[in-house]
């Protein structure tokens, strides 16, 4: 089977899950899958995907895996005790044919605490099932050549001595096998340039640092869980700080766009959080605006970290590193360009939260194609509340 361990997912799912256990254990949510790549025919592989998801739902954490999680400084003992009883509830996920020919429809509905771990392995399953059926000759040598070329761009440039890159590509990987090889190769050949991986299973296997803080779904859910919509971003950041007490201090900046983020990210949050993560819109403009915002709030930008993770390539990351060199700390998370770059077009698939406690939730991105909501009236209201321009 493709997924053989519940650790084969991204760290931020566990860090968010711990917040859910301690602050929102009764929250009910809905997630919906979407393929942004046109003309992809996944229908012939529907039963295969169902079989893989069924196997996923039989998995439980082993004692060795729980011991590893206990060793992470920010994971609390009661959360690990809960995970010792955990498995993914198969009754909460539905996989069927979509409305258009070739489409598949995947939805998840149930307790946030019990369904939060579905997204990453399900997307990894869809990817691997598709590619193992459509790419019988994967082109491993081409993939290795491309990976080596990327790494050498950093290794061979003395001006990039402080360059740090992490692997973030679990959900869109070509296959589990290739993902493993990418992490192993980067760890062996990039030295200190390789910051780690978002994938906990591979971090544990290869002895590298697992990386991640919060994802979009966390701030989206707070639209329904907070005291009022306008304060939901502040509520999410304050709840996060209450849980982690200064640890895991990278704030996600693009659930409502950069303007709305900066309005809420006041001097208190500027000082409290270690930095912010970029995941949509122009990264150069975003970085410049954030540095100016720190200065305006009497915070030295050189003490803060800017994390870039939006559809990055190595040349783009190097360009960003040079622009912000000496002005702040920078880090890069590269996903699809590492784990699905063997010469085939990767799938652009996502699985986003669309409702929480029966209310619609949305991400309003600086990149319009990333906006996802199933209630146009709510989306219009959200734009009005956060003073965002109409579409």
Automatic annotation (TrEMBL):
Task: Write down a Pfam family by its short name.
Answer: NAPRTase_N
Say if the entry is tagged with keyword Transferase. yes
Q: Which InterPro entries match?
A: N/Namide_PRibTrfase, NAPRTase_N, Nic_PRibTrfase, Nic_PRibTrfase-Fam, Nicotinate_pribotase-like_C
Q: Which domain of life is it from?
A: Bacteria
Record-annotated Nicotinate/nicotinamide phosphoribosyltransferase domain positions? 163-389
Could you tell me which pathway this protein works in?
Cofactor biosynthesis; NAD(+) biosynthesis; nicotinate D-ribonucleotide from nicotinate: step 1/1
- EC numbers for this chain: 6.3.4.21
Write out the GO MF terms: glycosyltransferase activity
Ranges where the Nicotinate phosphoribosyltransferase N-terminal domain occurs: 7-127
Going by the UniProt record, its keywords in alphabetical order are: Glycosyltransferase, Ligase, Phosphoprotein, Pyridine nucleotide biosynthesis, Transferase
Maturation and modification: Transiently phosphorylated on a His residue during the reaction cycle. Phosphorylation strongly increases the affinity for substrates and increases the rate of nicotinate D-ribonucleotide production. Dephosphorylation regenerates the low-affinity form of the enzyme, leading to product release.
Instruction: Give the catalytic activity.
Output: 5-phospho-alpha-D-ribose 1-diphosphate + nicotinate + ATP + H2O = nicotinate beta-D-ribonucleotide + ADP + phosphate + diphosphate
Please indicate if the UniProt record lists Ribonucleoprotein as a keyword: no
Provide the positions where the record notes the PTM Phosphohistidine: 216
- HAMAP family, A to Z: NAPRTase
PANTHER family per record = NICOTINATE PHOSPHORIBOSYLTRANSFERASE (PTHR11098)
In UniProt terms, what function does this protein have? Catalyzes the synthesis of beta-nicotinate D-ribonucleotide from nicotinate and 5-phospho-D-ribose 1-phosphate at the expense of ATP.
Family listed: Belongs to the NAPRTase family.
The identity of this protein, by name, is Nicotinate phosphoribosyltransferase
Q: Which organism is it from?
A: Neopusillimonas maritima
The organism's taxonomic lineage, starting at the top: Bacteria, Pseudomonadati, Pseudomonadota, Betaproteobacteria, Burkholderiales
